Amino acid sequence: MVKPPIPISVDHLKFRIEYIENYLHSSEALVAGKEFPPKLFVTKNGEKIVFRQAKREEAKIILQAIKPLIDHKYDKDLYHLVAARTYAEILAWLQHRYKDEYVIIGVHGNELVGVWNARLWDENIAISLHSLTFKRLARIGLAGYLAKIEHAFDILGVKEWWATFESPFGFRMGFYLRHITKPYPEYQHELGGSPVFYITKDVWESLIKPQYKEYLGTRPVPEDLLQESYKLQPPSKYEIEITPTKK
User: What is the mean pLDDT of the chain?
Assistant: First the structure.
């Protein structure tokens, strides 16, 4: 305990919880009122995936979907680590403890198939947080990652996208999507001080969008599919194993 440098009239102050929360409540000034327009992505197997911005009241369903992956048996491909971190970030979003966070989800019918979140550092820089898919080998992960980049550049109007990658699969995707690195360790990503891999608005418009157009989906989403996606449920099964190809 540190004593004040001069006498204070009382030795104890009572605060209303509402006053304290006013200081602790995270800001959403940069993302409020700028919703991601829902879009439809069709996988190579014909599965229709609705990508849309999650509603805060859906956070508990998202957490329910992620929680089983927070287990050592899912250490393969870094799923355990990514699930734990994503769970904490969604919980912080639900409880207003993460500045300017937004969450994109992929829904097949009414089943959640993936979660992609990010936040705005300021009006110019978007920070990629995590990407978590419950169904692999359908390019849903790539389409979802592109969706959260699209929201940052096209809807929120940032100038740079800052990411880092915890798994070899994530790094491969970043390599394909023309991410380059900031000088390290001068620039560090907030997810543990890893290197910053970034893309600019110009690269997004001139290279990535034209090259990956087939993964950007289409709008509008048919009304029946959109409404079904709002009956959100956790996945009925997790399809995250990849069997190595025999040489």
Answer: 95
Residue range 146-174: mean pLDDT, rounded: 96
Domain for residue 142, yes or no? yes
Instruction: Give domain status of residue 14, yes or no.
Output: no
For residue 68, count other CB atoms closer than 10 A to its CB. 14
Q: How does strand 160-163 pair with strand 48-53?
A: unpaired
Residue pair 51/39 in contact (Cβ under 8 Å)? The answer is yes
What's the CATH code of the domain at 166?
3.40.630.30
- Domain encompassing residue 188: 37-229
Range of lowest pLDDT (9-23, 27-41, 53-67): 9-23
Beta bridge partners of 102: 118
Distance CA 43, CA 108 (A): 11
Question: Is residue 246 a part of any domain in this protein?
Answer: no
What secondary structure, in 3-state letters, does 153-208 show? HHHCCCCEEEECCCCHHHHHHHHHCCCEECCCCCCECCCCCCECEEEEHHHHHHHH
Tokens of 197: 């891999």
How many domains, in total, are found in the chain? 1
Q: Which residue has the tokens 């979140």?
A: 117
**Beta strand spans in the chain (E):** 39-42, 48-53, 101-108, 111-120, 125-133, 160-163, 180-181, 197-200
